């Protein structure tokens, strides 16, 4: 597949490059060459006991349903992974999202799902079947994206982390289960609502930080707890915060940053 | 009651003073007068957007069963609250623990509990009845301790945080429910195994960070989740980590530090 780099800009210590791999549009964030702070030490030099890793770790990020590779929550986290950890971060549009063409198979399910959310009906089974369908495509796409990005000099073949909640969790589970380069994963806002989901979770044995919203109106609490319980990881942590599906507290990003630093070191 | 200060030492930026209030022995940790770092800025000056609070906040800490006011886990956390937040921290011996005389009413229950742990039997109901009994005494003692400590010039009447897990959770619940000076609490390694426990939790409406061990051999998972669910707090977070009762990961202290800084500011 054809891998081409597009627009290349930098701001506040973060270099942002668009790329495309075949028909998959993506964005790569890396430390800008002048990322050192005024006093000459990198932003992440305050990490006692955290190993510096070369080549730098890469966080691959899966966006939420109806969102895209540059959704504000993705960009904000990517910038923190770059500036506070010295990592690379990348995200691509999921099929039927962002700059990708509408896919009729998916669009019908999405429309049906929106209708169920509006009606307050149970959306879990439909979401699960949608995610199972899309993930057959994304697992391959995302692995190919890693192959391409790791050939770039300023990325390299360092350890990979995965970050994804909601749709990013549903698609992330089979990806993380299949991809040995991923060494630590933040997942969440998802539940064990289909047998495939739980099956993927059981195959995952890397450290996992799992985010739940205690009053999630879309994911039944029991399904979230069952998914957390299913992870095969000896080192896993559940962070459940009060609030609904979209109320994930901002300070969980601090926790995600520290989680990746503990498990991937700093770049 | 007679309040007297005892031995007064300082090391690594932390002043440590023994005190006694009537028959209750305790320890107070505060920033040592020379706590500024080499470059002249306090250790906690790196907190963007976190309010500086005067008088300084105080973290009152409840120790675990069989432990005492200077158990390593208490001292280590107290020192971090002092050096990283500029707080005061204090802990007292629970009746029948540490430097306090053996109390026959409690000793019999403790012995029975040890036997049940050794036999792998269900200890939850016994622990709950023990904690209910002791807390009738400790709620009063701890409130009187706050009264006394807050009269010290280097403590003052700032906001109070509570930290306590296991026995420190069982005794902390009715204390936090009763004491309006407590504005944020870290609790955990406890479960809703008695009606009083759940009742206290419902009365608590301040921010709570609740620590669970997912494979706790002493607290049934269901009882831990039910206790978390019972908190009346609109802002509550559950952190459940893989591992047994005594395996609380060290990095949760980082999280506790940030939790208190968010809710109490820095001193």
Protein architecture, described:
With 267 residues, chain A is α/β, with parallel strands linked by helices. Chain A has helices spanning 72-85, 104-119, 124-149, 167-178, 195-203, 221-230, 252-264; strands at residues 3-11, 14-21, 24-31, 58-62, 88-92, 160-165, 182-188, 208-213, 236-241. In chain A, helix 2 (104-119) crosses helix 3 (124-149), helix 4 crosses helix 5 and helix 5 packs parallel to helix 6 (221-230). The radius of gyration of chain A is 18 Å and the shape is globular. The interface between A and B is medium-sized, with 21 and 21 residues.
Keywords:
homodimer, 267 residues, alpha/beta, nine-stranded mixed beta sheet, 7 helices, 9 strands, globular
Biggest interface and which pair forms it? A-B, 21 and 21 residues
Radius of gyration of chain A: 18 Å
Class by alpha and beta content of chain A: alpha/beta
How many strand elements of chain A?
Answer: 9
- The low-confidence parts of chain A are 35-41
So what's the overall shape of chain A?
Answer: globular
The proportion of residues forming helix of chain A, as a percent range, comes to 25-40%
Question: How many H/I helices of chain A?
Answer: 7
Strand order of the largest sheet of chain A: 1-2-3-5-4-6-7-8-9
Quaternary state of this entry equals: homodimer
List the helices and strands and how they pair.
Two copies of one chain form a homodimer.
Chain A: E1 3-11, E2 14-21, E3 24-31, E4 58-62, H1 72-85, E5 88-92, H2 104-119, H3 124-149, E6 160-165, H4 167-178, E7 182-188, H5 195-203, E8 208-213, H6 221-230, E9 236-241, H7 252-264
Parallel strand pairs in A: 4-5, 4-6, 6-7, 7-8, 8-9
Antiparallel strand pairs in A: 1-2, 2-3, 3-5
């Amino acid at each position: 597949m054809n891998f081409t780099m597009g627009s290349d800009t930098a701001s506040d210590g973060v270099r942002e490059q668009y790329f495309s791999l075949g028909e998959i549009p993506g964005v790569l964030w890396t430390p800008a060459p002048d990322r050192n702070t005024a006093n000459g030490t990198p932003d992440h030099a305050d990490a006692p006991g955290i190993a510096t890793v070369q080549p730098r770790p890469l966080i691959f990020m899966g966006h939420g349903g109806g969102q895209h590779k540059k959704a504000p929550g993705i960009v904000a986290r990517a910038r923190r992974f770059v500036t506070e950890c010295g990592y690379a971060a990348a995200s691509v549009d999921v099929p039927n999202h962002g700059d990708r063409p509408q896919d009729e198979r998916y669009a019908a399910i999405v429309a049906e799902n929106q209708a169920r959310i509006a009606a307050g009906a149970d959306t879990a089974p439909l979401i699960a079947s949608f995610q199972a369908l899309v993930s057959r495509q994304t697992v391959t796409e995302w692995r190919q994206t890693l192959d391409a990005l790791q050939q770039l000099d300023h990325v390299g073949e360092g350890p990979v982390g995965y970050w994804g909640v909601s749709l990013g969790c549903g698609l992330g589970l089979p990806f993380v289960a299949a991809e040995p380069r991923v060494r630590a994963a933040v997942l969440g806002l998802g539940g064990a609502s289909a047998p495939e989901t739980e099956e993927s979770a059981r195959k995952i044995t890397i450290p996992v930080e799992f985010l739940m919203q205690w009053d999630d109106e879309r994911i039944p609490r029991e399904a979230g707890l069952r998914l957390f319980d299913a992870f095969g990881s000896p080192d896993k942590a559940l962070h459940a915060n009060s609030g609904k599906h979209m109320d994930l507290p901002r300070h969980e990003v601090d926790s995600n940053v520290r989680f990746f630093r503990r498990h991937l070191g700093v770049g």
